[in-house]
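note to self — DONT lose this again. spent like an hour looking for the file last time. sequence + predicted structure for the chain T wanted, 126 res
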Amino acid sequence: MNMYLAIAAGGALGACARYSVAHFALRLFGSGFPIGTLFVNVAGSLLMGMLIEVMALRWSPSPELRVLMVTGFLGAFTTFSTFSLDAAVQIQKGAYMVAGGYIFVSVALSVIGLFAGLYIMRMLLT
């Protein structure tokens, strides 16, 4: 149960952080380009890489703290960080075709899925 509470706490913080960054970017830059989302995705990926590496080389936090930070906070802040980690693992293994396929299919299907969701809800609600 402690693991779920840690994930929930980290998730709440990550979701609030994501909202705050996106809201700030919208007010600062306007809505012409999703700079807030781009920043969150890049920053989350950077933080994921830094966190995973420091935990591999120098720091061994408790399992609860690990899931609070990685699964909870970064998972809610941006799932792009997890996507980037998965792609990086494949690249580090030398599985370049797998990594490239994963990147392409993930992005393409995610965008298609978003449009499909928009279409379905528009059909159901209008």
